[in-house]
Amino acid sequence: MLRYIGKRIIGVIPTLIIVVTFVFFFVRLIPGDPARLVAGPQATIEDVQVVREELGLDKPIHEQYITYVTGLLKGDLGTSLRTKRPVAVEVSNRYANTAKLTLLALTWSTIVGVLLGVWSGRHRSRWQDYTGMTLAVSGISLPSFWVGFMLIMVFSVNLKWFPTTGADSLKSLVLPSIALGSSIAAIIARFTRSSIIEVLKDDYIRTARAKGLRERVVVWKHAFRNAMISVVTVVGLQFGFLLGGSVVTESVFAFPGLGSLLVESVNYRDYPAIQSLILIFSLHFVVINLIVDVLYAVLNPEIQLD
Q1: CB 80, CB 155: distance < 8 Å
Q2: Most exposed of 17, 147, 149, 180 (fewest Cβ within 10 Å)?
Q3: DSSP strand E in 243-294: where?
Q4: Confidence band (pLDDT; 50, 70, 90) for 173?
């Protein structure tokens, strides 16, 4: 297991190099001059040039790239052009909020999605199946920003049960987590249903039923574990999407997380912050994929980690 993890970590290095290079050059295609934004609208051309030199933006692009990579190797993510503080500090202040929101959204969406999927797959082509898949299709079809606005209108403006913005308490996480996790729950439900239907066709399931076992035991003890192998992949990928794809939801709820920080950084042409955030989102996917591969062996020992 340790050898396998070591090989995967080494294999990640080329991917990270490509990501760092692509992001570095891509963000410089964003229209606008960061030096002008830092200097202010009243600054003269000479003032803007001084700021450009201070930020190192006057250097050739390859020198800027070498400086950036050298800083990364030293653990330095750079200094935010917007706040003049280290990017690592800016990220650390927001990371905990996004992590809490993501974990809450993933937890409830996984539980609801798996239960709904098992319920639908167990009662295939019956009213339970039609009801479950109608809910799933609705969850996938409704955009998260619309769900967020509706939640704010009903539960914050009219009923006044939850706050509309902020991340000060657990109550402030409820509505954003519902908006963020509704589509995830629908996706998990559909995958779980398909997996359950396929597994229930296997010979060992027919054998279990022939032994007189109750249907609940057949589904949850024999079918559920094997059905979860493909679902784990979906959950892992969705976790990565949640961490990096909460931009819209965080913007709707003015939630102080990584998503809203990315929007602010793009609006300000904050190159160091944009580069660091995208790199962090990429690392999330790499780590999550590794965890998913390891979980395969936990769910099914017959799977070999080669």
Answers
A1: no
A2: 17
A3: none
A4: confident
User: What confidence score (pLDDT) does residue 1 get?
Assistant: 63
Map tokens 């403006």 to a residue: 157
**DSSP 3-state assignment of 86?**
strand
Question: Which SS3 state, helix, strand or coil, does residue 79 take?
Answer: strand
Per the DSSP assignment, residues forming a β-bridge with 86 are 79
Q: Domain spanning 90-299: which CATH class is it, in words?
A: mainly alpha
| Residue ranges of domains in the chain | 17-73, 90-299
CB atoms within 10 A of CB 232: 18
Round to whole Å and give the CA distance between 201 and 18. 43
Please state, in angstroms and rounded to a whole number, the distance separating the CA atoms of residues 205 and 203.
5
Name the range with the highest mean pLDDT among 158-167, 185-194, 265-274, 276-285: 185-194
> For residue 168, with 0-12 CB atoms within 10 Å meaning exposed, 13-18 middle and 19 or more buried, which class applies?
exposed
State pLDDT tens for residues 94-113.
Answer: 888 888 888 888 889 889 98
Q: Tens of pLDDT along 227-258? A: 777 777 778 777 777 776 677 788 888 888 88
Measured CA distances, 273 to 1, 7, 148, 167 (Å): 35, 30, 27, 21
Please name the residues in contact with 288: beta carbons below 8 A apart, sequence gap of 6 or more: 236, 237, 239, 240
pTM of the model: 0.76
- Is the pLDDT higher at 107 or at 83? 107
Q: Comparing C-alpha atoms, which of 214, 35, 185 is closest to residue 106?
A: 185
Tokens of 5: 């993890």
114 vs 223: CA distance, rounded Å? 13
Element of type H or E holding 222: none
